[in-house]
Design brief:
By secondary structure, the chain is of the alpha+beta class. It is built from 11 helices and 8 strands. The strands form 3 sheets. Strands 2-1-4-3 form a 4-stranded mixed beta sheet, with helices on one face. The chain has a two-stranded antiparallel sheet with strand order 5-6. Strands 7-8 form a two-stranded antiparallel ribbon. The chain starts with 8 loop residues before the first strand and ends in a 7-residue tail after the last helix.
Length: 341
């Protein structure tokens, strides 16, 4: 039996599977438990009280020091509570199989809410539970395709196009690098770029990187379409755990366009100038264009990063001098045929 206080302590009480709370006051732990069981129509034998915050059981010894208006959870025999992390787990389970009731409740709360922070949280929740991730075609998810040309009939098709457009833009920048070499070496530079273009065409411009239907190792996302930020160029991972699924809804598709395929060894500051210098200084040696191809267009040197993780300062990284030129044997094996005019 716990000590009985002269002045009642007040608590906010709820059952394990209910969000509704009610006030209860008592001079002892037993009195609060009895009143709670009566209100919730639960059996007293085997029942106990725990703090909502961390799951600490409210006993007679702790009752005296418990703050007024503490939130309690009333548990019956066999039930457990690990603190608010239990609520978070239940909250996250909603996203696995969202149903109409959840969506309607979120919409109702949002329409009545005035706090900007709570509005943001509710809007994010509503956007998440309303996602149609599994849908792939325009017919299955028309809102996803709003603003896109009618030629795009599937989500994967559009995202392949999006990735290909980025890679094509890199190729254009490399081509413009011909201006960095003199006229006598320009033909050789453009021949090497042409070889890269042929390889890209054969690989469909590595558009599979954004295609959730591509084979593992050829895509940057999960089979469901989730992409994770790989962190800034100078770290191994994203400490902010940025992630996005552009297959889920139109807003995520648009936001994904702000993510970057960042060159670890920078394209403009390092790779293209080194390629141009290698062609200029070749003196009969064969430039290893496949090495530059991998740096410019493949995951050997590309990282997918959230805009907040995209550092635009100089990376101060350089190409490997020992890989700029082919060895004599490799040169004979790799040298592409010259294009006929």
């Amino acid at each position: 039996m716990s000590a009985v206080l002269r002045k009642p302590k007040t608590f906010k009480l709820r059952s394990l599977h209910s969000e509704k709370k009610f006030g209860v006051a008592g001079r002892s732990c037993e009195e609060v438990l009895r009143k709670g069981c009566q209100h919730l129509q639960l059996p007293i034998p085997g029942s106990r009280l725990c703090l909502y915050e961390d799951g600490t059981e409210l006993t007679g010894d702790y009752f005296r020091s418990a703050p007024d208006n503490s939130e309690l959870v009333l548990l019956t025999a066999g039930q457990t509570w690990q603190g608010f992390v239990s609520d978070i787990s239940r909250f996250l389970s909603v996203f696995q199989e969202p149903h109409a009731g959840v969506i309607q409740a979120a919409r109702q709360l949002l329409s009545d809410e005035r706090s900007p922070l709570r509005q943001k949280l509710l809007a994010d929740l509503l956007g998440t539970v309303s996602e149609n991730i599994a849908a792939e075609t325009r017919a299955e998810d028309p809102p996803w395709f709003e603003g896109l040309e009618s030629r795009f009939r599937s989500k994967s098709g559009y995202l392949r196009y999006s990735c290909e457009s980025r890679i094509r833009s890199y190729l254009r920048e490399v081509t413009s690098g011909a201006s960095l070499v003199g006229a006598e070496a320009r033909e050789e530079y453009l021949r090497l770029v042409g070889s890269m273009q042929q390889k890209l065409q054969a690989a469909q411009y590595n558009s599979s990187y954004f295609d959730r239907g591509a084979k593992a190792g050829r895509r940057l996302c999960t089979p469901e379409g989730w992409f994770s930020c790989q962190g800034p160029f100078d770290v191994d991972d994203c400490t902010s755990r940025h992630s996005i699924n552009p297959y889920s809804n139109r807003e995520s598709r648009v936001l994904f366009s702000t993510w970057n395929l960042d060159h670890v060894i920078e394209k403009k500051r390092a790779v293209v100038p080194t390629l141009a210098a290698a062609v200029h200084d070749a003196e009969g040696r064969e430039v290893d264009w496949e090495y530059f191809y991998r740096l410019l267009f493949t995951l050997e040197n590309l990282k997918l990063v959230h805009i907040a993780c995209h550092k635009k300062t100089s990376h101060k990284l350089h190409c490997d001098p020992s890989r700029v030129y082919c060895t004599p044997a490799a040169s004979r094996r790799k040298r592409p045929a010259r294009q006929r005019p």
